[in-house]
Amino acid sequence: MSQTVLDFEALKKAIPHRYPFLLIDRVTITEADKSAVGIKSVSGNEPFFQGHFPEKAIMPGVLIVEAMAQVACALFLSKPENKNKLAFFMAWKRLNFVSPSFRVIGWS
């Protein structure tokens, strides 16, 4: 199975997001048009940790959802026929966070 890896520079070419709202560092497209895995290297110096439970730093769920939307955007916009298009995240039907480690078990 062939995989495509979009590093940080390739992501900046594929999607319009920029600092401080580019929330992914790398995307591996595991199945064209269907599946991708995003990586975000999170450090304790992230600005949202200063106010989001400073005693037990947790990445805000809304930013996790945005990062997932950016992975989907990268999957869509990395295709040559979608170059110079915009992708918008409009809605989700069901999303469940099951623990503070934020493993997402359901998203549709």
Task: Give a quick set of tags describing it.
single chain; 108 residues; alpha+beta; 3-stranded antiparallel sheet; two-stranded antiparallel sheet; 5 strands
List the helices and strands and how they pair.
Elements (H helix, E strand, L loop, with lengths): L3 E3 L1 H7 L11 E6 L3 E5 L21 H17 L17 E3 L6 E4 L1
Antiparallel strand pairs: 1-2, 2-3, 4-5
Total DSSP E strands: 5
Query: How would the global form be characterised?
Result: globular
Q: Quote the average pLDDT.
A: 86
Q: Report low-confidence residues grouped into runs of 5 or more.
A: none
Rg, alpha carbons? 15 Å
Query: What is the N-to-C succession of helices and strands?
Result: EHEEHEE
**Percent helix among the residues?**
10-25%
How many angstroms does the end-to-end distance come to?
A: 25 Å
Q: Tell me about the biggest sheet?
A: 3 strands, antiparallel
Strand content: 15-25%
**Looking across the biggest beta sheet, what order are the strands in?**
1-2-3
How many helices? The count is 2
What structural class is derived from the secondary structure elements?
alpha+beta
Please give a quick description of this structure.
With 108 residues, this protein is α+β, with helices and mostly antiparallel strands. The protein has two helices and five strands. The chain is 22% helix and 19% strand.
Explain how this protein is built.
- The chain is α+β, with helices and mostly antiparallel strands and 108 residues long.
- 22% of the residues lie in helices and 19% in strands.
- It contains two helices and five strands, in the order βαββαββ.
- It has helices spanning 8-14, 61-77; strands at 4-6, 26-31, 35-39, 95-97, 104-107.
- The strands form two sheets. The chain has a three-stranded antiparallel sheet. Strands 4-5 form a two-stranded antiparallel ribbon.
- A hairpin with a 6-residue loop joins strand 4 and strand 5 (104-107).
- The model has no long low-confidence stretch (mean pLDDT 86).
